[in-house]
């Protein structure tokens, strides 16, 4: 499948270079970093106030009450950023494929895994359950809503006279993070 990895001929081939010209590699790297945060987030939930988890430390010394700070900051942006990255490509994908193909591909790529895993989790838990694949369900719903909106409304092709600045975006993100942290803190202590 990978051929001789010691010989980098595939990675220098025209096919490989052309394939990667179209990718936004910085977004791939960002998704890897976000995935690591998701793993850390879920691994840490067993040791702090981060939601229900199957494992609870038997030794009180294993419990880390301060870890909620990590959860609050992390939860303020990491899944939202995944949605932002996914949403960035939806418009272009819809424009290239059209409504019918776009919806068909989303139902195949997102709907089938959702049904299979949701069905398996529901059978194992004896109740309707999708568990940690809620992201796939949400992404599918958002894509279908986008397709419905595009059927009803035509896209806006005009130029916007004002554009956000980096400083403005950082201030907005900081304020939203502080508000999210505050809301999470208030709800975790009640």
How would you sum up this structure, described in words?
The protein has 190 residues and is an all-alpha fold. The protein has helices at residues 14-21, 25-44, 68-75, 78-125, 134-152, 166-188. The N and C termini lie far apart (55 Å). The model has no long low-confidence stretch (mean pLDDT 81).
Structural class: mainly alpha
Oligomer status: single chain
Q: Kindly provide the radius of gyration, computed on alpha-carbon positions and rounded to a whole number of angstroms.
A: 21 Å
Global mean pLDDT: 81
> Given the C-alpha coordinates, what overall shape results?
globular
Largest sheet: none
The helix fraction, in percent, is: 55-70%
**How much of the residues is beta strand, in percent?**
under 5%
What order do the helices and strands follow?
A: HHHHHH
**Total of helices:** 6
Unreliable parts: none
Q: How many β-strand runs? A: 0
How far apart, in Å, are the first and last alpha carbons? 55 Å
